[in-house]
Amino acid sequence: MSSFDAIFGCAPEVTAHAPGRVNLLGEHTDYNDGYVLPIAIEQQTTVSMRRNGQDEYALHSEILDSTVHFVLNEPPSEHFAAYVYGCLMEAHDVGIDTRPLDIHVQSDVPMGVGLSSSAALEVATLRAIRALTKSALDDVSIARLGQRAEIQYAGVRCGIMDQMASSLASTTSALFLDTQTLARRLVLLPAGSAVLVLDSGIPRVLAESGYNQRRAECEEAARLLGVPTLRDVRDVSQADALPEPLRRRVLHIVSENTRVLRAANCSSAQEFGTLMNASHASLRDDYEVSTPELDRLVALLQAHPDVYGARLTGAGFGGACVALCQHDSLLPVATGVLEEYAVSGFKGRMLVPSTGGAAGQ
Ligand code: GLA
Q1: Which end of the chain, N or C, is less packed with Cβ atoms under 10 Å?
Q2: Cα separation of 311 and 27, whole Å?
């Protein structure tokens, strides 16, 4: 019997999946209309649903072992339910019939570490709604609705990267995405390299408030510079006239966009890794979203001879680090670095490759 059956006493009508993602390069650039380079991870979220013929929705989360009941004109107060509710509302607003459903959510995407468990939940929910209603939503529309759901109903003014990655990326090639035009292409990892993701074990404190604050700073900097978004800053010396910390925020965005463009066109693992290292320094010093623990873990990764480059990944303020490694060294690198990290008094863990298989090529 499936988990849905066990909770709701019958089989689901549809089941859909969507993966988490790890961002290789291009951090905090998406809400500045810039460039990003995420890759999907093997861990995914599964959403099953059926029409229940009742007056209210029933939403069960297997991880939280909790069922929430709600109606569409009253948002549920439970945080996890806000994402699903938001997707239902967004689907409803574009004319999709979202009559009450029994919904079951199951996921092995690590939560709260910067691997987009929320986007995976949004995209899986919208894919399930698409399948159930046979609507003509394409994958980009699903990403846009998911992003709107997160902004409107979860209160994070996120960009479009995570939902685009969950909706369109693969686990074998990175997705090079221009977040202004949504032009995109798949980019192979440099030959002989593979992706390792380690969790710093530090919860992402301030992730939501700090994130929204950074976004507001970028908007203020763009206003002062007289450009629509920081993507349009061509010459970084334009930022010299800005007050701190806005000047440094602009430095990060402009330099990070340049790094993504270089990485998307480079075939050398060494060069790719050097760009990742520079990204971490910029996120630490100019964008100020790192923490001492992330800096320590990244430094240990960068010092390892089988690592081409490493950086914090996702919004920062805690969470995970990503490294590009020699493809046959992932496990020894993870073991060695996590041991040294433990000597510093911290407890990390390996997230990618997941224990179920290998990532990258
Ligand atoms: C979060 C947001 C994304 C992006 C990253 C930082 O994951 O959801 O839109 O801004 O942070 O790069």
Answers
A1: N
A2: 10
Respond yes or no: is residue 139 known to be catalytic.
Answer: no
- pLDDT tens digits, residue range 78-88? 989 999 999 99
Residue with structure tokens 């209603």?
133
Which atom belonging to ligand 1 lies closest to the Cα atom of 161? 9
CA of 25 relative to ligand 1 center, distance in Å: 11
Cβ atoms 100, 59 nearer than 8 A:
no
Element (H, E) at 311: strand 307-312
Of 140-154, 310-324, 344-358, the one with minimum mean pLDDT is 344-358
Ligand 1: residue of 28, 83, 276 to mutate (most ligand atoms within 8 A of CB) is: 28
Measured distance CA(324)–CA(271) in Å, rounded: 11
CA of 115 to the centre of ligand 1 (A): 10
Ligand 1 and 27: CB distance under 6 A: yes
Query: Does the structure show a pLDDT above 60 at 358?
Result: no
Q: Which residue lies with its CA nearest to atom 11 of ligand 1?
A: 315
The stretches of the chain forming alpha helices (DSSP H) are 3-8, 79-93, 117-133, 139-149, 161-168, 207-225, 246-264, 269-285, 292-303, 330-343
Catalytic residue among 30, 33, 102, 162: 162
The β-bridge relationship of strands 173-178 and 184-188 is antiparallel
Tokens read off for 75: 């948002």
Task: Please tell me if the CB atom of residue 315 comes closer than 6 angstroms to any atom of ligand 1.
Answer: yes
- CB count, 10 Å around CB of 228? 11
* Nearest-CA residue for atom 2 of ligand 1: 158
Ligand 1: which residue has its CA nearest to atom 9? 159
Spatial distance between the Cα atoms of 295 and 325, rounded to a whole number of angstroms = 18
Q: What is the pLDDT of residues 238-297, one digit of tens each?
A: 999 999 999 999 999 999 999 999 999 999 999 999 999 999 999 999 999 999 999 999
